[in-house]
Amino acid sequence: MRLKYLIRNILLLLLIISNVSCDQISKQIARNKLTDHQEVNIIPNHFILTKVENSGAFLSLGTHFPMMIRFTFLTILPCLVLIFGLYYLIKNQHLSWPSATGIAFAVGGGIGNLYDRIRYGSVTDFMYFHYSFIKTGVFNMADVSVMVGRFLILLSRKSYPSIPYEIKK
Asked: What InterPro entries does the database record attribute to this sequence (predicted)?
């Protein structure tokens, strides 16, 4: 039984490392190959690469906050959440695979963006998608990991709802 949990945890840690690696490699390529705000049409008018350094959170939220507030909400708080997420993932061996995979994706994406924020003082975003009424902000692979993670967690809640229990008297 212990071997099963060890293998499970190793696979989940490899998934986290893979997410962080994919994010960091893609950001490094964007930093090296794109200049700030340069636009490269991959699918003309639909999928564009453009490098933006984001010192705020999602869609630059908080960019103009005082440094101490930004540091607290964009570095310290996410670090605590990621530590809790990793702890929760390792300790809760009963999680369904979709839930565990979703948490691993979200933690991996969070680590990727947190690493950027600590190392560079901002997060490198470089992808933009626009099709019909669907428009995104500029994002990166860590953001994709977080969104895939959220989707898997929501999917697992639909597929595996918690079973209510009765209190026996």
From this structure: Peptidase_A8 (IPR001872)
Phi, psi of 95 (to 5 degrees): -60, 140
Written as six digits, the tokens of 43 are 């699918």
Q: Structure tokens of 62?
A: 């908080």
Among the ranges given (24-38, 51-65, 133-147), the one the predictor scored with the smallest mean pLDDT:
51-65
Return the active site residues: 125, 143
How far apart CA 145 and CA 77 sit, in angstroms, is 19
Residue 52 Rama label (left phi>0; alpha psi -120 to 50; beta)? beta
Q: Which amino acid makes up residue 148?
A: V
Instruction: State how far the Cα of 44 lies from the Cα of 37, in Å rounded to an integer.
Output: 16
Q: 74 near 82, Cβ under 8 Å?
A: no
- Reduced DSSP (H G I as helix, E B as strand, rest coil) percent helix, strand, coil of the chain, to 5: 60, 15, 25
Q: What is the DSSP letter of 140?
A: -
DSSP labels, 121-157: SSEEEEEEEEETTEE--SB-HHHHHHHHHHHHHHHHH
Alpha carbon of residue 20 to chain centroid: 9
Confidence (pTM): 0.87
Contact 107, 16 (CB under 8 A): yes
